[in-house]
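Hey team,

Sharing the 3-deoxy-D-manno-octulosonic acid kinase run so nobody has to redo it. Sequence (248 residues) first:
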Amino acid sequence: MAEITTRQTGAAVIWYDAALVPGFAPDLFDPAWLKQTGRLTGTSTGRNTAWFLRYEGREMVLRHYWRGGMVGRIVKDLYLREPVDRSRAMREFTLLDWMHGQGLPVPRPVAARFSPFGPWYRADLLMERIPDTRPLADCLAEGPLSDRDWMRIGAVIARFHKAGVHHSDLNCRNILLDGAGGIWLIDFDKCERRPQGGWAQENIRRLERSLIKEKGKVPGLHWTDRDWQALLVGYRVISAPPDIKYDA
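Structure output:
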């Protein structure tokens, strides 16, 4: 578990892992400062921008929390103020830290910031960057995965479910594959630990819906019913009692 240090900078409250970054600089949350000092190494311009940076020899990702849906068109990044430890970034930091300590394949959290603004607050999260990774959707746009790969994806999801981790937005862009064959889950905003229940199957159905949607947008997407069945086999092998076996 992280050695969490709390720091106050103006009205903002920062949590950071002192073991990872003993010389933590609050300006790490400022993309303009990162660019000016040569620490910014790139950006990701998906639905919301993320900034890639290098600091004290570590590759990291900075993410600002943005509102989605209809509300996000009016109030882009303000959330109703709440206790610091219940705020968006701090909750995700805490969950990531716990999952990392359990050996689950997630980014390691570095720091989180709570910035109050009257009755509102803004939030930011800084994580270690997982090297040489691509979203599952991008991989499928280029070529098919093997049955073994799909089974491994299913097995990784099952590990999270057995640990009681509910991923509120499990989709084909929040699953990453790395160059060494590793599989990672990302984006745990609004996620939580839960007692075992029907939510796990709904998680799986949500992923299936995202793959169907992606195939509708990318007609040549390399995803078939056989692939999905292989994923389910891998999921069941991990989630089922040890005396039950499934054939591929």
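The first strand starts at residue 4 and ends at 9.

Ping me if you want the raw files.
A.
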